[in-house]
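Students often ask why inverse folding is considered easier than folding. One informal answer: many sequences map to the same fold, so there is more than one right answer. In these notes we will look at a single instance of the problem. The structure comes first.
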């Protein structure tokens, strides 16, 4: 946890301008614009690979970014959402215990598998671990295994 705090503070020192929320076409650029902003902002203080060592869920990335802003990081309009989109899409985890079917499809699962997971979770409760998820009847376990590193069971 201490390393996460240090990481957030390190990134915070490299950001400038004013904090605002993205709108319109800035959100549409999301991930690609976010990668550019992430690389430009974060690399001035440290190597960007340092930030990507620990993948997080969307909520986890939101927490890191909120902490940076609370510590004084300032971003131009749209940059916060663009960075969040990039980190979530390219370096994010998906919590199978809270994800909607479309989030599971974006992870790389078929619509059928995503619907099966959501339905099973609704009927039986949250999954304790990957073995429990893998035990859901009717899932394509090869496809599930392929996305294993991006699956989380809590935020």
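Output (designed amino acids):
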């Amino acid at each position: 946890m201490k390393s996460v705090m240090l990481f957030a503070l390190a990134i915070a020192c490299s950001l400038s301008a004013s904090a605002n929320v993205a709108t319109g076409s800035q959100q549409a650029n999301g991930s690609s614009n976010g990668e550019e902003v992430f690389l430009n902002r974060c690399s001035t203080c440290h190597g960007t690979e340092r930030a990507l060592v620990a993948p997080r869920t969307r909520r986890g990335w939101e927490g890191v970014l909120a902490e940076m802003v609370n510590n004084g990081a300032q971003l131009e309009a749209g940059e916060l959402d663009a960075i969040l989109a990039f980190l979530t899409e390219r370096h994010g985890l998906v919590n199978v215990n809270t994800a909607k079917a479309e989030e599971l499809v974006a992870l790389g699962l078929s619509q059928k598998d995503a619907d099966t997971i959501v339905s099973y979770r609704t009927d039986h409760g949250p999954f304790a671990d990957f073995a429990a998820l893998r035990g859901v009847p009717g899932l394509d376990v090869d496809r599930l295994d392929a996305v294993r590193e991006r699956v989380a069971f809590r935020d």
